[in-house]
Amino acid sequence: MRQLSIWSVLGIWASICVGAALYAAWEGYGGGAFAMTLTAFAILLLVMLSFAARGVAEDLAAKFGAGGGLLLGALLFVTFVLYLVGTGTFAMQRGLTMAAFIFVPLGLAASSGGAPAGSWQDFFTIAGVWVFVKFGSRYWMWPYHSEQLSKPLSVLMAVDAALATFLLARRLKGVGYSIGWGNRWGLFVLGSFVAFGCVAIPLGVQLKFIAFEPHMDHWSALLLGPLGILIFTAWPEELLFRGLLQNCLARASKSEFAGWWTASMLFGMSHITNLGFPNWKYVILAAIAGLFYGWTWRKTGSIFASALVHAAVDVTWHFLFRTT
Fold first, then answer.
1. Are residues 199 and 53 in the same domain?
2. Which of 146, 173, 200 delimits the end of a domain?
3. pLDDT tens-digit series, residues 84-112
4. Cα(194)–Cα(38) distance, rounded to whole angstroms?
5. Could you read off the pLDDT of 244-258 as tens digits, one per residue?
6. Which range marks the domain in which residue 264 is found?
7. Are residues 53 and 192 in the same domain?
8. Looking at the whole model, is its pTM more than 0.90?
9. In the chain, which residue ranges form alpha helices assigned H by DSSP?
10. CA-to-CA distance for 36 and 317, rounded, in angstroms?
């Protein structure tokens, strides 16, 4: 795999941060509180992207050992406290909640005592991260201005905390946390996307879950929507359900098929509360999607490839179909 260097990743990071600042200014955001929010966003995004660069995670793990996870956790917590202070929203409950979210998984990783991947501590942490992001009050944790700003911050913090726990403290192998490209990846990504569409579109229409209704939103949605879906939906979910969950399930069961199948079914079940509970139509289609995403991850060994398929599916659904 030809993985991006840290300098290429830093260029991507700088472009996103500058673009976010310009777009925010165009939307009318400004002031010291917003500047601190943008700073927190930039720090969290830098961690998320830099770990996907060639050799960064390995070098940090080799240099600091398991303590690297604690150091990264401390950086994340300080960033959160600075955000609260800078936006005038500091509250002890928020600080303690975030401290628990960051440091309890690190403590569990330490308590595993170097156990093989797939320990109960691993699964407990994966479940905890999912519950926190899925059901936690993002706006309560990141209260400045609006839910629109709190969602990306919450997702970035969850990804970074998972990196501290699994890539540094646990040094879990085979996650595939990278940005790069390998031989025949285009075939795997495109083939998975097309094959899923051939299955999901007729099934979704038959279940009366979707209807073909192309719509083009404002130009900003066309430009920023796909990027936002890739960074804040597809990438985090692929890390959690493929790089971590499917990986740990396969290692614990000593069966790639069992890990793939089980993670896909759990991915489907994780959508049962979406658009009304219980939404079994969503569960069925998401579980099928999970099979294709999981297959792509297995063939390429990278969450970047499966995230591209995931993002392509979500973008197609968003712009070409209506949920009935």
1. no
2. 173
3. 999 999 999 999 999 999 999 999 999 99
4. 37
5. 999 999 999 999 999
6. 183-324
7. no
8. yes
9. 6-27, 32-50, 56-64, 67-86, 92-111, 120-135, 138-141, 147-162, 185-206, 219-229, 235-238, 247-253, 256-269, 280-300, 303-320
10. 34
